[in-house]
Amino acid sequence: MFGEIIGYARKQNRITVEFEKNKVTIAVITPSIINFFAPIAGERRPSKAIEHLEEEPGALIVDFTGETLTIRTEQLIVKVTSDFRVNISDPSGTILSEDYRGTGTAFIRRGAGEGIAMAAEEGHKLASEEEKISYRLKKKLDPNTFFYGLGEKTGHLNKKGYHYKMWNTDDPSPHVESFETLYKSIPFLIALKDNQAFGYFFDTTFESQFDLGKENSDYYSFASAGGNLDYFFIYGPSVKEVVTGYTKLTGTTPLPQLWTLGYQQSRWAYAPEERLNEVADTFREKEIPCDVLHLDIDYMDGYRVFTWDRKKFPNPEELLKKLKAEGFKVVTIIDPGVKKDRGYAIYDQGLANHYFATDKDHLPYVNQVWPGDALFPDFSNGKVRAWWADNQKIMTDLGVSGIWNDMNEPASFKGPLPDDVQFNNDGIQTDHREIHNVYGHYMAKATYEGIKQATGKRPFVITRACYAGTQKYSTVWTGDNQSLWEHLRMALPMLMNLGLSGVAFCGTDVGGFGFDCTSELLSRWVQVGAFTPLFRNHSSIFTRDQEPWAFDEQTESINRKYIGLRYQLLPYLYDLLHDEETTGLPIMRPLLLDYQNDPATYEINDQILCGEAILVAPVVEQGAKTRLVYLPKGSRWIDFWTKESYEGGQYIVKAAPLDVCPIYIKEGSIIPLYPVQNYVGEKAIDQLTLDLYPPENGETSSYTHYQDDGESFEYRNGSYNLYEFSAQLSESSKELYVSINATHHGYEKSYDSFKLILNNTKATSVAQNDAPIPFKVMGNKTVLVVKEGELHIKL
Ligand code: MIG
Questions:
Q1: Ligand 1: which of 268, 483, 515, 539 to mutate, judged by most atoms within 8 Å of the beta carbon?
Q2: What is the pLDDT of residues 54-93, one digit of tens each?
């Protein structure tokens, strides 16, 4: 395909390498991020994932020996040889990524039977796929490599040994490990090898494949069914730096409105309005906090998007106003399929303006979804996105607070959209093969922009389908899981890998969507949900009720307990999302993200970190009343319930009766808490609680807390407050110094006081600026209320 290198040209940070048969471009984006581009399919087109590429390449040296072209950045050495073979090493020369130069072929399966060798089903499948792909890139696989990322995939945290595909797919059968595709396509892979992490972002929207040492353990490979070869190598060496690098390219999730972090209740479907009101009333009667209610497809008039069934919902505006007064925000579902129905405004406008995808003869393409015959807006056309964005006002003007985008793979009932369905692609006409994986992405983007323009507030969008970069516009949920223990277990690595793939704001249907949930399963699932960024219980029309009270008293009180805990943690979660807007780091993390030096964390599937401070080891097995917990090395950990303290780097056995989710707090943590409220904004928060777990003697720990109005974009103009908290324990362990300081004051409201909970601390005196401060010792902790300033606590 390429041949020998003939020469090269350099223009600042772009190096064009001329091969006998092709010309490639290597661009140094930053010292740790390199882009490799080969025009296999044709001209370069604007990326759909990367909208603002900031280049800060630093110093680089290029040199060519006649055989090998070497590019040295401040962080990497890239060597290119014939046939566009690339080796990448760190500055010390340790190889990170090496193109595979061997002749290894795919394994074969031998039939048992009479011992006759035969290619098995899978072999044939691989062979036929090979015909479809336009290029395959093979990289040498070292045995001590771990793989993460790839967005929303079934299976375990470490993806080594598996094969996955990127082709957005709605398959309602139970999601199992053998699924190669789901609703989302994020062609971003992280490799961790000898404590060095690096990533590859393959920016192709065509169907693509990742083989992670499945077909041959000597190499891993990436292949695409079309488009140009266009990938970014992103160096760590920490996984954190890789994730931050990837989100520097594709964007981070903007800070959401605070209420979106509250509890959300959904079901297919809360209709008519009496039913919705009944659910709302039950939350308030039972004092189970809830901020959001979702309306699924049955609120619409004959499944016509942007309409209401006026029999079931005679006056949506009044209804939403009434619910708002009770503290409920309503989110409505909007599907892409527009009913083919003359006289229906959305259809008429779409048709008149040529807004729908067409067949190859340029006639509007029709398939079937919920409303029957339906057409598909061509979201790859900026004009269509602008129209769709304007339509959001129809909903927000009635008081709708967020939009839930479903079915945007796009799903269709009469077979999949044919390859040759035509799309405008912002003026570079193309077909379904190129647009399929970004259809949901563009829909979410249009929805985000529409809500922003209509309300001026931070938009809340949930999408099922997405591509790399969708995190800039939308939160995601993982589609139609089922009420199975297997699916609760699966949710953890799936969400952790989504988080590592830039999708910081994500969640699963708590309790499971399909199949009937059990009281025990819901009790355990809500314990996980409380720590997932998007916390929504949702179930299908075909299943038994699944609200927190749908089972028995015990299940209800477990729901209340964990939803309440979630509301206490809101300021902590909000701080995480605020940090994430800059760093791109996920809220729900695999342990290895923070403990990369501890290889025992590399394959932990069933524990998570919620930010740095909280480790959660949920019970994900029916009947289990105890579980093994791994506490990572490098920190000490305090049992959240008993306050017992443990050294990291060990497994412990934790008793976990049904109402106990094992939770551990990292020693030294200072966690901001709100009181439990029925909904965000119910109580004015004049006092912030600081749940403090003192550091080791001689150590200091600190925490930055962020505060703003929780809904507008004013924070971008400086309208926010920052507080710096720190705690220091003296060498003798006899003195604890705590400081509370406002370091940025731009938002008009602030806290009047702080309630300090000093865990595992018995104070004998407390002074602020030498003046004694009253305090209470309660068991093993000390509680006091203070203003900003320096505190001297004698123990
Ligand atoms: O084919 O709108 O994943 O959350 O409740 C089912 C009805 C269509 C699939 C979504 C699910 C939603 C359901 N939808």
A1: 268
A2: 999 999 999 999 999 999 999 999 999 999 999 999 999 9
Which ranges constitute the DSSP H helices of 165-303? 239-250, 273-286
- CA 406–ligand 1 middle distance (angstroms): 7
Residue 267 Cα to ligand 1 middle (Å): 9
Q: Which amino acid is at 649?
A: G
- Angle 570-576-581 from CA coordinates, rounded to 5°: 125
For residue 644, how far is its CA from the centre of ligand 1 (angstroms)? Answer: 44
Distance from C-alpha of 356 to C-alpha of 353, rounded to nearest angstrom: 8
Q: Which residue segments constitute the domains of the chain, with CATH numbers given?
A: 5-98 (2.60.40.1760), 261-336+381-580 (3.20.20.80), 588-665 (2.60.40.1180), 684-794 (2.60.40.1180)
Report pLDDT for 116: 45
Contacts of 517 (CB under 8 A, 6+ apart): 483, 511, 525, 539, 543, 544, 546
Query: Taken in order 183, 186, 189, 190, is the CA torsion positive or negative?
Result: negative
Ligand 1 atom nearest to 513, measured from its CA:
4
Q: pLDDT tens digit string along 477-505?
A: 999 999 999 999 999 999 999 999 999 99
Three-state secondary-structure class, residue 192:
strand
Dihedral of the alpha carbons of 591, 592, 593, 598, in degrees to the nearest 10: 110
| 601 pLDDT higher than 90 | yes
Residue 141 CB burial class (10 angstroms; 0-12, 13-18, ≥19): buried
What pLDDT band is residue 102 in, cutting at 50, 70 and 90? confident
The b-or-e profile of 44-60 (16+ CB within 10 A means b, else e) is ebebbbbeeeeeebeeb
CA of 269, closest atom in ligand 1: 5
State which ligand 1 atom lies nearest to the alpha carbon of 411.
1
Q: Please name the residues in contact with 235: beta carbons below 8 A apart, sequence gap of 6 or more.
A: 32, 33, 75, 76, 88, 90, 96, 198, 241, 242, 245
Pocket (CB within 6 angstroms of ligand 1): 268, 296-297, 333, 406, 464, 479-480, 513, 538
CA 278 → CA 273, 417, 552, 557, distances in Å?
8, 40, 18, 19
Reported as a single tens digit per residue, the pLDDT across 755-771 is: 999 999 999 999 998 89
| Distance of alpha carbon 383 from alpha carbon 354, whole angstroms | 10
User: Both tokens of residue 522?
Assistant: 């819901």
User: How far apart are the CA of 632 and the centre of ligand 1, in A?
Assistant: 39
Residues 525-547: b if buried by 16+ CB within 10 A, e if exposed: bbbbbbbbbbbbbbbbeebeebb
Residue numbers annotated as active site: 406, 409, 480
Token pair belonging to 42: 């044709």
Cα(309) to ligand 1 centroid in Å equals 18
Nearest CA to ligand 1 atom 5: 268
Kindly give the number of the ligand 1 atom that is closest to the alpha carbon of 509. 4
Report the separation in Å between the CA atom of 305 and the middle of ligand 1, taken as the mean of its atom positions: 14
As a whole-number percent, the residues of the chain with pLDDT over 90 amount to: 95
521: part of which helix (H) or strand (E)?
Answer: helix 519-529
Taking only the tens place, the pLDDT of each residue in 613-659 is 999 999 999 999 999 999 999 999 999 999 999 999 999 999 999 99
Residue type, 151: G
β-bridge mates for residue 405, sequence order: 334, 463
Pocket test for ligand 1, best of 297, 335, 480, 513 (most atoms within 8 A of CB): 480
172 Cα nearest atom in ligand 1:
1
